[in-house]
Amino acid sequence: MSTDGANIAGFRLAGRTWADDLGTWSSAVSADGRPGTALRFDPRLITDRATRDRLVAAVVADRRLAQSGLTGLVPIADLITAQDEVWLLTAEPVSPNVADLLADEPGIPRPDAGSAATILVEIAQTLLAIHAAGLAHGALHPGTVAIAPDGSALLAERGLADALLGRPPAPERDVTAWASLARGLAASWAAADPRSAALLERAAATASTLGLTPARDTLLLGRDQLPPGFVTRDRLMEILRRRAERDMPTQVGQPARMPVMPDEGDIVTLLKDPRAGEPPTEDVIMRFGPGVPVDTTAAQIWRAGRDQQRTELPAAGLRSGGAPPRQRRARTILASVILALMIVAGLAIWLFRGSSVPLAVTKVDVIAPKAAQKCDTTVKILGVLSTNGSAGEVRYQWKRSDRKAPISQTDQLVAGETSHEVSLEWTVKGEGSFKGTATLQVISPLPDGKKLQDKATFTYKCS
């Protein structure tokens, strides 16, 4: 039975419908003309009051995350009940998603390795914020990663599968899913670029062993191995434009069995209905401490460049139906500032309390310029120390191949920082050729007294 043109709680169902593990989705348009989606949950999944209450708690947690400034989730407009059915209404579309873009379509270019890296970094950022709040996504896969009209990645269905199945949040499941997604994109979107594919594979392996923050930073520090313009999502924007042009004349729907739409008088929002009960507070409180995702230098550079490019994009390119209201952008900026202040405050409290787990350095990476350096230059060598996130003192030394005496240094690390960057500046002058090797060695703390070091080599040519 077609529902095209039917209304549910102010949303007009229009266009395509499709089914997944949770129920049946329909593209929709809100009362003010903005595109969104409507999900009718499979009634077999909501069989008792406890399941419905867990679902309400998950949606309330999402809304509180959004109010705190998190912008990486598909925003929830409402959760309603109508004639014993439960519907979820979103204020942004959940399609196209990564699964849609993985399918080869005539006339539509494939995303590239830069698109994959952009999406993976943004997913990691969102997951880190979710995990810091004591929550998890629970069902991360290509079908739950929506691509917004500006090319950014938004996570859909956060917490819904866990709520319906009665599972506790499991951040480690999200990390495993992120690593699997990275490997999948390496084998598809990066297949034609071996260097980029290797970078994505390395990030996946890092996530499995060290976690999301080092995995994200692996992509950020390896951005020279990715196509130009990937931070601004040029490729993704072009793909979305082509898809919009293709779908503009007609909306082809996929048939799905849908019920007769209820009268508006039968609809009750679960987010304000006292009969739905108050969601458990422990599921929605924002918690801060050693798991707070503090930005590394690499992440700050990424965000600064990305945001600068966003402000320079033409308004017509942001959304097929026109640019978003200025008020929404102002609210987003204000909310982001508030979230940043909350994170800083929470981190300060944790630091004041102190950590009972001693600092441990688990890995060292050294990165040197790959291109030959020209006459009379100062070469900048980057070192990255991966840690367990505890506060403490780290002692290390740089060794240059042109001198015997090492350069010893000591840094103080704060709690929550699992990736610490150090640098070495090496000045080379005069004519001729030279190959220099920089070795970074950790003196303390060391895992079980083992040697922990890495090195990188650069070339200098001046004639």
TrEMBL record:
<feature type="transmembrane region" description="Helical">
    <location>
        <begin position="333"/>
        <end position="352"/>
    </location>
</feature>
<dbReference type="InterPro" id="IPR011009">
    <property type="entry name" value="Kinase-like_dom_sf"/>
</dbReference>
<keyword id="KW-1133">Transmembrane helix</keyword>
<keyword id="KW-0812">Transmembrane</keyword>
<protein>
    <submittedName>
        <fullName>Uncharacterized protein</fullName>
    </submittedName>
</protein>
<keyword id="KW-0472">Membrane</keyword>
